[in-house]
Amino acid sequence: MPKTIFERIVDREAQADILYEDEHVLAFPDIAPQAPVHILLIPKRHHARHAAVPPEHHSVFSHLFAAAQKVARQLRLEKNGYRLVMNNGPDGGETVPHLHLHLLGGRPLSWPPG
Ligand code: AMP
Questions:
Q1: How far is the CA of 32 from the centre of ligand 1 (A)?
Q2: How far apart are CA 104 and CA 35, in angstroms?
Q3: Is 15 a pocket residue for ligand 1 (Cβ < 6 Å)?
Q4: Ligand 1 atom 20: the closest Cα is on which residue?
Q5: pLDDT at residue 75 in the model
Q6: 9, 10, 69, 95: which has the fewest C-beta neighbours closer than 10 Å?
Q7: Does 87 contact ligand 1 (Cβ within 6 A)?
Q8: C-alpha to C-alpha distance for 64 and 96, rounded to whole angstroms
Q9: What is the pTM of this model?
C-alpha cells in the first residue's frame, strides 16, 4: 500500500507546520480549515481508522486525546470550548485512511453535524 499523506508527514517526506510532537503523536493545522482553529492530531504509528485499531494498541486513543488537551490549552481554547472529531469510514466522512483526531474551535460550532 502506498503511504498516506499523514504517513509522509510523520516520515518528514511531506511538509506540515508541526505545532505539537511527542513520542506517539504529531499535531499540525488542517490544510482546509473548517473553523478558525482546525488542528489534526495523528499517531506516528499507522492505523487506518478508529475501527481498525486492535485492542493491544488502544493506548493510541489516550495518547491522541491527551495531546489534544495539551494543544487546546496551548491555543487557549479551554474557556470558550472546542470540539474533537474522529471521522471513521465512508459514512463518517473519512478521507485520509490514517487515524486522526480533528480539534476544532475559535467559533461556536453547530450541532448536529451535516
Ligand atoms: P478526514 O476527512 O476526517 O479523513 O480528515 C482528513 C483531513 O486531512 C481533511 O480535513 C483534510 O483537509 C486534511 N488534509 C489532507 N491533506 C492534508 C495535508 N497535507 N496537510 C494538512 N491537512 C491535510
A1: 7
A2: 6
A3: no
A4: 31
A5: 98
A6: 95
A7: yes
A8: 16
A9: 0.98
Distance CA 41, CA 109 (A): 19
Structure confidence at residue 1 (pLDDT): 83
In angstroms, the CA 102 to CA 79 distance is 18
Those residues with Cβ within 8 angstroms of residue 14's Cβ, 6 or more apart along the chain or in another chain: 5, 8
Residue 114's pLDDT is: 83
The amino acid occupying position 23 is E
Dist. CA 33 → ligand 1 center (Å): 9
Cell of 17: 507546520
Mean pLDDT by 10 residues, the chain (114 residues): 96 98 98 98 98 98 98 98 98 98 98 91
CATH, domain range 5-105: 3.30.428.10
Q: Is the Cβ atom of 40 under 6 angstroms away from ligand 1?
A: yes
C-alpha cell at 55: 485492542
Distance 95 CA to ligand 1 centre (A): 7
Catalytic positions, written as ranges: 100
User: To 10 degrees, the CA torsion angle through 72, 100, 46, 54?
Assistant: 100
